[in-house]
Amino acid sequence: MQNSERLALAEAQFVAMKADAIAEFLQRARYRSEVVIVDPPRTGALSLMEPIAKLRPRTIIYVSCDLTTLARDLRALAAHRYAIRGVSAYDFFPNTHHVEIVARAVLT
Description:
Blueprint: H1 2-6, H2 19-28, E1 35-38, H3 46-55, E2 59-64, H4 67-78, E3 82-90, E4 100-107
Parallel strand pairs: 1-2
Antiparallel strand pairs: 2-4, 3-4
Helix pairs in contact: 2-3, 3-4
């Protein structure tokens, strides 16, 4: 939150909860965010794709370290009218096979 204040991002809001509870909480609160950022473990976030899609954010940023689970979860988002508008890979761990992948899905 200190960074959002330092950067004068007055509209930024932060909620800290377990991932499987937050989408349901936000839906009950009738909250609609513009952007959702997901950075799950290697197992992915398949169980969160439908609840997040029901929130109908304009953009979903998905950060992944596993291409297989990323593809599976993005396929689930596509079933909810999200289109992939960009994918970038980042090699934060040189000399290893590990790569971070960032995908941007946009509601169509």
